[in-house]
Amino acid sequence: MKQADVVVVPCADYEPASVRPALEALIERAGGLAWLRPGMRVGIKANLVAAMAPDTAATTHPALLAALAELLREHGAEPVVGDSPGGLYNGAFLSRVYAASGMNAAGLPLNHDFSTREIELPEARLCRTAAVTGWLLDCDAVINFAKLKSHGMMGLSAAAKNLFGTIPGTMKPEYHFRFPKPADFADMLVDLDEFWKPRLHIVDAVVAMEGNGPTAGTPRPLGCLLAGQNPHRVDLICARLIGLDPADVPTLRAAQRRGLCPETVDALAIDGPWREFVAEDFRIITERSGLQFQNAMGGGKRGALFSKFLNRSIAARPGVEKALCVGCRKCEQVCPAKAITMKKRRPAIDRKACIRCFCCQEFCPKGAMKVRRPPLARLLAR
Ligand code: SF4
Ligand code: SF4
288 pLDDT exceeds 50? Predict the structure, then answer.
């Protein structure tokens, strides 16, 4: 029987009685673990975006990671769980993240090697050299375990985006600066995905995050797990589940340009009742909100100029909700373009300097930095 591109399995909650059988069925149907050898060190690249509790839906749930670690051990492997969120990449910072996200309480084997190494990616389209987290290089195999969330810059955070966590947190701003355009940033992510080539990509969509993701959104139960051996095919279904147009997901567009992913879910071999989990009213945030202007005014030079003007006028941008802001300066510190200065204890954004990476929105601890769409974009979207 032909291997499915994507497997979707129901998982109602994070109780052990739900998690273990769902995960076992998912992995078995997505190709199984016959490739494991005794003693193999398997790196589980989780999403540990910040020191946030499991019930915020910001991180991969510890119950799932614990079940996967148990399964790998039963096959004689040595699992290790890790990530590098934005911020410092050291033991003190990660200890806080591990504690808050429930990793310690779940008794997980956690990474404590915070070295950084330079690698070459000779096959890459855009990112031929990179500085990456050393721990994952020392693993014999990688399993990517992402969380499904809405995302300001990339439309969604799922399998493909999760491997940005292999770039040490302290160096992430440099990558935003090297690749300020969403299309280039996405190409860099696809290069990373191709370099790491995880054996399996799993997405935790038991409880996803909608709205102001990837850290300040709202938990939204979807009740399923997804898996596949190609991250973009898994993400194509994820986009469909949350009502997001694939054209609004730069990594999907980049993967499609490279022939790694079809245009629509109809071209995928899907194993599982995925339609049951579609949430059309899922609150998303996108750069372009489905507005396409490539052919405005019939193409040509005038059309291209008009498109550029329109795209600039409708592009989403960060904006502060003053009532929520506590003046902590985190946004100022993480901004790779140095576009934020504090005025009267509130961030002021230099629009010309802003590269719209949405790091400020991602790392605001109070959810005060929002992705805002200009009035023209809202009008056109109607
Ligand atoms: S990170 Fe958030 S709360 Fe802190 S200053 Fe910036 S907008 Fe305000
Ligand atoms: S202001 Fe925010 S979106 Fe703009 S460059 Fe700085 S961090 Fe990125």
Answer: no
| Cβ of 367 less than 6 Å from ligand 1 | no
Question: What atom in ligand 1 is closest to the CA of residue 367?
Answer: 2
Length of the chain in residues, anyone?
A: 382
Give the global pTM.
Answer: 0.87
Q: Are residues 266 and 200 in the same domain?
A: yes
What's 321's domain CATH number?
3.30.70.20
321: domain range?
296-381
> Which of the ligands is closest to the CA of residue 364?
1
Task: Name which of 249, 224, 254, 250 is nearest 239 in CA terms.
Answer: 249
Q: Over the stretch 181-236, which tens digit does the pLDDT of each residue have?
A: 899 999 999 999 999 999 999 999 999 999 998 999 999 999 999 999 999 999 99
Q: Centre a 10 Å sphere on the Cβ of residue 145 and count the other Cβ atoms it contains.
A: 26
